[in-house]
Amino acid sequence: MASQVATPTSLQTTATSSSTSLSSPGLSPSSPALLSPDDVELLAKLEEQNRLLETDSKSLRSMNGSRRNSGSSLVSSSSASSNLSHLEEDSWILWGRIVNEWEEVRKKKEKQLKDLVRKGIPHHFRAIVWQLLCNAQNMPIKDQYSELLKMTSPCEKLIRRDIARTYPEHEFFKEKDSLGQEVLFNVMKAYSLVDREVGYCQGSAFIVGLLLMQMPEEEAFCVFVKLMQDYRLRELFKPSMAELGLCMYQFEYMIQEQLPELHIHFQAQSFHTSMYASSWFLTIFLTSFPLPVATRIFDIFMCEGLEIVFRVGLAILQMNQAELIQLDMEGMLQHFQKVIPHQLDSGPDKVIQAAYQVKYNAKKMKKLEKEYTTIKTKEMEEQVEIKRLRTENRLLKQRIDTLEKKGPPRFSEESVLQLERELVQARLKEAESQCALKEMQDKILDMEKRNTSLPDDTNVARLQEELIGVKLREAEALTGLKELRQQVRDLEDHWQRHLARTASRWKDSSKKNTMSELQDELMSVRLREAEAQAELREMRQRMLELETQNQIHNNQLRRAEQESRSLQERVQKLTTQNKDLNMQLQEIKRRQAEIECKSKEEVMAVRLREADNIAAMAELQQQISELEIQKEEGKVQGQLNHTDSSQYIRDLKDQIAELQHEIRCLKGQRGRLANQPTFDGIHIVNHYRAADESYQSSDDDGVKVSPLQVPQQRSRIKLHPKLEDTDSDEEEEDGEALRISVPQSSSHKTTSV
Fold first, then answer.
1. Could you give the CA distance from residue 286 to residue 280 in angstroms, rounded to a whole number?
2. Which is nearest to 662 in space by CA: 740, 716, 715?
3. Helices (H), 453-509
4. Angle, CA of 465, 469 and 474, to the nearest 5°
5. Where would I find the beta strands (DSSP E) of 587-702?
6. pLDDT category of residue 720 using cuts at 50, 70 and 90
7. Distance of alpha carbon 737 from alpha carbon 714, whole angstroms
8. Nearest to 741 by CA among 686, 680, 685
9. Distance CA 162, CA 159 (A)
């Protein structure tokens, strides 16, 4: 089972190794120069633990050919102890003390313990240290393991299918139906029965396989249960994988904050975080990195949790940022799958050291967790609402299909009312969904406005130029500082050589002593000169830093002045627009007041003209009444002769013409007035007849005209035929009829002539 990291040894193997090493000549208790009394006591306890393990029935069964441990260790305890170097001996003793005094070390020396775990746990101690780190050494569920193996799990087919894909190149697991595959199946089956909500998830087998490389299956089962419960792995492997989504959200924020250029490139290529980082969190890098590197990271994971996954993941991206920016999506996938694993063949120290240079803020991660929970809660509510609506639609479709199959529908009043209520509820829900959609659209518009308020490309380019200038100055300063340090080192070397040369001349003659003193003074002068140059360089460096800060402040002031200037211009424009609007408003008010005054004056003038017209109309009616009375009186008396009657008729026609002219004038004025009441009138009609009638017959007709005749009815004045013939030419010019309008009155009767 040749593994470069660790062999699947048990606590029994550890104890056996300790007992063997105790019996070896190099580490025997008779060698007090190598072992202290505490070390001897520790080894004695390990030997006692070995005896207890041998008496244990389960461990004895595992030693006598159990499927768990038979052939599981390639390196025997004797060979391991014989090949230990001095460094390994020190590490062995140190970790032995830690295991022996675990509770005290865990409480009082937690920081030192973390530092030791980061440097790596010796593979002989991994089994017991991992159990101690996760508190899995005395779990009650361990006694249920054998009973769980006798039960049947619904996930057995899935587990069997994926076992061949777990560590396919590892000696312990690559053969079909081998010991490794069998114990891996047992642990995964037992956990699927313990936690039926999670059951089995692809990827968890790699973690169980790593545990089985270090310890027996029962201990591996207990450790795996602890990892699932206390290390967030259970939430990662749930069917919803909500915890994995949270990890992706947090990791993407860290990339955006610490590697903004790479984040922009990922977004431009639609290269989502889950495409390369999901396996990192699900398998703790076991499927992505070489096994020795992944095991060292797993040591830290057992001590510190998922924080190491965030740190290592970001460190890998920092180390490969320049290459990834040059690649497209397929190229980046190939780089993650093939190039990055080979970069870590030299060992995990480099990437672990880089990982602890990454900024990790636990408070910020908690805040991101709350934000993600809020977002997911809203999404879940929307999904639940959508599912409910789809269910209702499906039920309605089924009802419609059922009703269509039954034939013409026969709805009762209750069913109609129920349908109406359902329709109202559906419309209300539709309105609510429309409101929610509108809110989302408003949010999108708000986000677009915020995007428009971001700095434009010119400001970004200017800031990039400033950053490049600052970096160039910093590089120049660092170069100068390195040169100064090199000069100081050269002078120190020269001084040491000089001291070495002059050390043997202290007992020489006075002249030689004088020369040496002069040389010493010369060297001290050179040293002071070098120190002065170093101070000068430091002052120049400070000057450069001050100039850089001054330039940055000047740029900030310039940008602030530009912004304030633009704001002032905008304020001036708005002030000018406000003044213009106020002037327009005052002008509109003034015009409105003038129009109101004019309209009032016109209304008064119209009312005055209306009163004048009414008075004139009354006078005309009075004159007409008087003329009709005079005409009636003249005809009754019979005093009209032919000549007098002709003259009288001419005078009457002249008066009628004048009255007609006045009436036309009044009608023209009335047409210009609005809402003028209409009048019926007295219609004076001149009838021209061709037949000759005698004067007597015309007199026999009689004239009946009331002196107070009301012009509601139409009166006709019939003239004598001879009089009509006399003035026929004038009457043809005047027209066939003449109509005079006067106000109506229903209280008078009509008389005819």
1. 8
2. 740
3. 457-502
4. 145
5. 681-685
6. very low
7. 13
8. 680
9. 5
pTM over 0.70: no
CA angle (21, 24, 28) in 5-degree steps: 90
Give the list of residues 6+ apart from residue 210 with CB closer than 8 angstroms, or none: 286, 294, 295, 298
Q: For 690, list phi and psi in degrees, rounded to 5.
A: -85, -30
Paired strand residues for 682? 740
What burial class does residue 610 get, using C-beta atoms within 10 Å of its C-beta: 0-12 exposed, 13-18 middle, 19+ buried? middle
- Measured CA to CA, the distance from residue 652 to residue 648 in angstroms comes to 6
Q: Is 624 in contact with 655 (CB distance < 8 Å)?
A: no
Q: Which helix (H) or strand (E) holds 720?
A: none
Could you give the CA distance from residue 253 to residue 372 in angstroms, rounded to a whole number? 11
Beta bridge partners of residue 684, listed in sequence order: 738
Instruction: Report the distance separating Cα 11 and Cα 222, nearest Å.
Output: 14
Which three-class secondary structure state does DSSP give residue 738?
strand
pLDDT by residue (tens digit) across 584-623? 998 999 888 889 888 888 888 898 888 888 988 888 888 8
Distances in whole angstroms, Cα of residue 671 to Cα of each of 211, 340, 607, 663, 665: 112, 101, 14, 12, 10
440, 643, 686, 695, 699 from 702: Cα distances, Å: 97, 21, 17, 12, 6
CB atoms within 10 A of CB 7: 19
> 335-350 pLDDT, tens per residue?
999 999 998 888 889 9
Give, in order, the Cα–Cα distances in Å from 393 to each of 68, 386, 583. 56, 10, 61
What stretches of 621-748 adopt beta strand conformation (E)? 681-685, 737-741
| CA-closest candidate to residue 350, choices 385, 320, 322 | 320
For residues 647 and 106, the model is more confident at 106
Residue-wise pLDDT tens digits, 695-716: 334 344 443 333 333 333 333 3
State the residue for tokens 């010019």: 733
Burial class (CB in 10 A: 0-12, 13-18, 19+), 141: middle
**Run of H or E including 709:** none
Tell me the three-class secondary structure of 202-223, residue by residue.
Answer: CCHHHHHHHHHHHCCHHHHHHH
